[in-house]
Amino acid sequence: MSDGDGVERLEELAEALGKLGVPARLRAADDGRTCLRASHPQVPLSTDVHVRSFEAGACFLSEWETIICPAANTAEAVAYIARLLDLRIS
Question: Any residues with CB less than 8 A from the CB of 52 and at least 6 apart, and which?
Answer without folding.
Answer: 6, 58, 59, 61
